[in-house]
Design brief:
By secondary structure, the chain is of the alpha/beta class. It folds into two domains: about 60 residues; about 250 residues, TIM Barrel (Alpha-Beta Barrel). The protein is about 35% helix and about 15% strand. The protein is built from twelve helices and twelve strands. The strands form two sheets. Strands 5-6-7-8-9-10-11-12 form an eight-stranded parallel β-barrel, surrounded by seven helices. A four-stranded antiparallel β-sheet has the order 2-3-1-4. Helix 7 crosses helix 8 and helix 11 packs parallel to helix 12. The chain is elongated, with a radius of gyration of 22 Å. The two termini are about 40 Å apart. The structure holds phosphoenolpyruvate and manganese (II) ion.
């Protein structure tokens, strides 16, 4: 953003007024060395143009057009799931059987969840790992959710599955590994449903917002941004939960934000503390992996909460109600 100054402006006074509003500036000088304008640095607080234009000494304010106008236009939107904040979406990493889906849904509902998560189509790093039961699992997930009056959030792995997933899911999930799969974003957006957009594990916030713009341009309902940790340098946790990005998305961009502490931590004992931190940073809720028997889980067992661990999670959520 650029602020131009009146010829008689007291530049020191204008800078002080801007600093008081949380805006940090650099002087722009003409050939004679006189300060003719101020460049507002990107780490400044948001401010209304009208407020800035009304400051003594300010001639005009110029803001570059946003690269993601549709994302900006959904500022203030709620997460399109039932229930009040903080929201809990819970369920298994993978949908393994009708029985497991029902047991996980019962755990989720008892913990206060209003939506059931669970992967039918699983992105796996190894081609030899369990990659989900596919279309059959979508039916098991929906039936388990309906039995407990829960909405369904589940991942779309490929363009060829969009219709099948959209037929059962209330919110379509785009996984971290697919955040910049632009053909998939177009296909998912065209389904016209709300989307949970996981952050790519090495994506900047701007790239993430632009992926949201792709979805909205293609016709998606509300895009919910889900922070799930970025690649860090320390293998003691699976990923590095970027709470700065959560605060930025919530407080500066005013976007609907969920946090996935399960994939961030990679270990059960850290999930509840990270969930509490996510809520403190401004998240609208959390998406958590739960399993009736984590030791038998076919994916991500070490990070799945069991019934006992869910008690602590419920208490943490209650403290934020
Ligand atoms: C998931 O939520 O099931 C998942 C695979 O997460 P991510 O895309 O964040 O790794
Ligand atoms: Mn998982």
């Amino acid at each position: 953003m650029l602020i131009t100054l009146r010829p008689d402006a007291d530049v020191v006074a204008v800078e002080a007024a801007l600093k008081g509003l949380g805006l940090w500036t650099t002087r722009l000088r003409d050939a004679d060395g006189a300060a003719r304008g101020l460049r507002v640095e990107p780490h400044s607080a948001p401010a209304a143009l009208a407020t800035l234009r009304a400051l003594p000494g300010v001639a005009d304010v110029w803001r570059a057009p946003s690269p993601h106008p549709r994302v900006d236009a959904q500022a203030g939107a709620a997460v399109p799931l039932p229930g009040g904040a903080p929201l809990l979406v819970a369920g298994p990493c993978s949908v393994e059987s009708p029985e497991q889906a029902h047991a996980a849904a019962a755990l989720a509902a008892a913990a206060g969840a209003t939506a059931l998560r669970g992967g039918a189509f699983k992105p796996r790093t190894s081609p030899y790992a369990f990659d989900g039961h596919g279309r059959a699992a979508l039916g098991w997930l929906r039936a388990a959710a309906d039995a407990h009056d829960l909405a369904v959030v589940t991942e779309v792995l490929g363009e060829q599955h969009v219709d099948a997933v959209a037929a059962v899911a209330d919110v379509l999930q785009v996984g971290s590994r697919n955040m910049q799969n632009f053909a998939l974003l177009r296909a998912v957006g065209a389904a016209g449903k709300p989307v949970l957009l996981k952050r790519g594990m090495a994506a900047t916030v701007e790239e993430w917002l632009l992926a949201g713009e792709h979805l909205l341009t293609a016709g998606a309902g509300t895009v919910v941004f889900c922070e799930r940790g970025v690649r860090g340098f320390d293998p003691e946790t699976r990923n590095l939960l970027d709470l700065g990005a959560v605060a930025l998305l919530k407080h500066a961009y005013r976007q609907p934000v969920l946090v996935d502490p399960s994939h961030a931590a990679g270990r059960r004992d850290l999930v509840v503390p990270l969930a509490a931190a996510a809520l403190a940073a401004g998240a609208d809720g959390v998406i958590i992996e739960v399993h009736p028997d984590p030791g038998a889980a076919r994916s991500d067992g070490p990070q799945a909460l069991d019934a006992a661990a869910l008690v602590a999670l419920t208490a943490t959520l209650e403290a934020h109600r």
